[in-house]
Amino acid sequence: KQWYQRRVAITAGTFNKSKFEMKFLFCLVLGCVLLHDCAGYNRNLQFPAEVSLGNYLILEPDFSQVQEEISICAWLKPYRQDSDRYWFSYATGGIDNEIILSDRTSRTHLFADALPGSEIVPLNEWSHMCLTWSSVSQIKQFYLDGNLVSSETTPTGRKITTGGTLVLGQEQDSPGGTFDITQSFGGEVHDLNVLKKALSGGDIGRIYRAGLCFELEQSSYSDYIVLGWEVFVQAELQGQVKVVTGECDKWDVLSDFVGQEITPGFIDYLKKYYRD
Fold first, then answer.
1. Whole-angstrom Cα distance, residue 29 to residue 25?
2. How big is the CA angle at 17 (ends 14 and 18), to the nearest 5 degrees?
3. Among residues 267, 143, 261, which one has the least CA distance to residue 209?
4. Which of 62, 151, 155, 239 could pair with 55 as two cysteines, CB 3.0-4.6 Å apart?
5. Do 69 and 167 meet the contact criterion of CB atoms below 8 Å apart?
6. How far apart are CA 276 and CA 274, in angstroms?
7. Are 81 and 123 in contact (CB under 8 A)?
8. pLDDT, tens only, 31-47
């Protein structure tokens, strides 16, 4: 399965392949579509609007590869904004707010320091966000819908601490717990990935413009992923959190082949004769 997924790791519009290679790639992607074997494709994590301290997902990730360079990117659709709501919380023994992501810039933290800004993700709408940082530049940056909206310099010598606990849906005041109901998240998350590379503004813009149905794990960025969306959708879910079907058409993945020996008419043909 890993070989299969790696072989179909492609980026829309960037093919320089032979006809044989294009047909081979197309067959693999078609198999992924027809067999419903695309990792996490068209799957969202849903946290109920009626928030509860029991609704969360918890992992103990290996962040040894992102100590000096990181990107955290995802699509977010909040159901409520009646207070500060946190959907991503990475806590360590020394810093409970090592990394936290909210639905607003001013509540997004790296190294326990909030980013400047006043942007708020729209309610009940999908928005794309990325937090990036590099120890070389010493700059943390936050992108919303492909645009850089906040940037700040971090102190020299900082590194992401390993051995921490990652929670989705709650904000940790101690590793793995001490949640606050007024900070519990209600909404949906899609295609969350942690990468060992500080993506550039150009990278993030392309990912955003590719749209909600573009899967990072099935792209040329897959080599940089250290914690991918498939891990999250297959993790043990607590409380009323659940994996739900998203808004994407599974056939959208074939659109990458338009103009590459595959015509829109051929895709329509496949849709007609290979229905669910």
1. 6
2. 155
3. 143
4. 239
5. no
6. 7
7. yes
8. 555 544 455 678 999 99
Cα separation, 261 vs 243, whole angstroms: 35
b/e map 171-209, b = 16+ CB within 10 Å:
bbeebeeebeeebbbbbbbbbbbbbbbbbeeebbbbbbe
Tokens of 139: 């700059």
Please give the span between the terminal C-alpha atoms of the chain, in angstroms, as a whole number. Answer: 22
Give the residue from 247, 251, 147 showing the smallest Cα distance to 207.
Answer: 147
Q: What is the 3-state secondary structure (H, E, C) of the chain?
A: CHHHHHHCCCCCCCCCCCHHHHHHHHHHHHHHHHCCCCCCCCEEEEECCCCCCCCEEEECCCCHHHCCEEEEEEEEEECCCCCCCEEEEEECCCCCCCEEEECEHHHCEECCEECCCCCECCCCCCEEEEEEEECCCCEEEEEECCEEEEEEECCCCCCCCCCCEEEECCCCCECCECCCHHHCCCEEEEEEEEECCCCCHHHHHHHHHHCCCCCHHHCHHHHHEEECHHHHHCCCEECCCEEEECCCCHHHHHHHHECCCECHHHHHHHHHHCCC
130-160 tens-digit pLDDT: 999 999 999 999 999 999 999 999 999 899 9
Going by their DSSP bridges, the two strands 56-59 and 237-238 should be labelled as antiparallel
Angstrom distance (rounded) from CA 92 to CA 111: 10
Measured from the Cβ of residue 49, the count of other Cβ atoms closer than 10 Å reads: 12
Residue 100 has a CB neighbour count (10 Å cut-off) of 24
